[in-house]
Design goal:
Elements lengths: L4 H23 L4 E7 L3 H17 L2 E7 L5 H13 L5 E4 L9 H7 L11 H8 L8 H12 L8 E5 L6 H10 L3 E5 L6 H5 L4 E4 L17 E4 L3 E2 L6 E2 L4 H4 L5 E2 L6 H21 L1
Helix pairs in contact: 1-10, 2-10, 6-7, 6-10
Bound molecules: guanine (GUN).
């Protein structure tokens, strides 16, 4: 079975569009997402285009703040302060990565907690790991929805997450743990990766490495979720970390790239923006 993230995201976004219309009736305004882009990274620009397009589809207003690659950290922090204080703004997202002269941790920590739509603020991270209510980062949230939508139960299963980033790997592992899976985190220093991934009932791959996972590295009947966004070195086409064609007949469920996790990540950003709007009004 192919897990169609694009179709699920479209379905969820039409529900969100109805909710946003209700919010407009209730409050006389709609949620607003501010997106901060520093520099000209083409991948970042492409992701941001997708986020702003999705906002338009559900009726969320967006505000793009573009800053030059030479912007100082203090100027960036001043821009975030301004968005934090702006009553009309419900969510603040700073697209990562940032240029080397800017401290990413300091910037993330400066975002107002109640506007942290990415769930990257250290207090949100602490809440997640303490098992408290939190703003869950968009990619793990999207993947948990993909599993739920396909009635895939994590409780008691062996889950393996390949990748240990703050954006995906770590919050993904904790989300699966919260769902009572037995979780292993593998990464670039893991020896004999295949021995680990073959144990997985649920395998989430977020390594950023094209063709990392072949059919010989998954268990028959595994659920395989591919977070990778790479360009195939030969064809130049978008591809994930999993060899989709090789794995599709061995997996019970598999998510494609494109059309799998990517649209769900963006969709959950809309969900988090609506959540911030509603919490700020409670
Ligand atoms: N860079 C790659 N993924 C993300 C994300 O989910 N949020 C932000 N802010 N930057 C990213």
């Amino acid at each position: 079975m192919i897990i169609d993230g694009k179709e699920l995201a479209a379905r969820l976004k039409s529900g969100m569009a109805r909710r946003v219309a209700q919010l407009r009736e209730l409050y006389g305004r709609v949620p607003m997402l501010a997106v901060v882009l520093v520099g000209e990274n083409p991948a970042s620009r492409s992701y941001i285009r997708g986020k702003i397009k999705a906002a338009g589809e559900v009726g969320i207003e967006s505000l793009l703040v573009e800053l030059p690659v030479t912007v100082s950290e203090s100027e960036l922090l001043a821009n975030i302060e301004r968005l934090n204080a702006d009553e009309r703004v419900d969510g603040v997202l700073v697209q990562l990565p940032l240029p080397d002269h800017i401290c990413e941790n300091r910037v993330i920590a400066s975002i107002a907690l109640e506007k942290d739509v990415d769930g990257f603020h250290p207090l949100n991270v602490a809440r997640l790991w303490r098992g408290e209510e939190c703003m869950l980062p968009c990619t793990p949230k999207g993947i948990m929805r993909m599993l739920a939508d396909n009635n895939i139960e994590a409780d008691g299963k062996r889950a393996v997450v390949v990748g240990r980033s703050n954006i995906v790997g770590l919050p993904m592992a904790k989300s699966l743990l919260n769902a009572n899976a037995t979780v292993t985190i593998a990464h670039s220093h893991t020896k004999n990766l295949g021995d680990i991934t073959r144990e997985a009932d649920i395998l989430v791959v977020a390594a950023g490495c094209a063709h990392l996972i072949g059919a010989d590295m998954i268990k028959e009947g595994a659920v395989v979720i591919d977070v990778g966004i790479n360009h195939d070195a030969v064809t130049g086409k978008l591809c994930g970390d999993v060899d989709f064609e090789a794995c599709r007949n061995r997996a019970s469920y598999i998510s494609p790239v494109p059309g799998g996790v990517g649209p769900m990540t963006i969709c959950m950003l809309m969900d988090n923006t609506i959540e911030c709007f509603e919490r700020r009004r409670k």
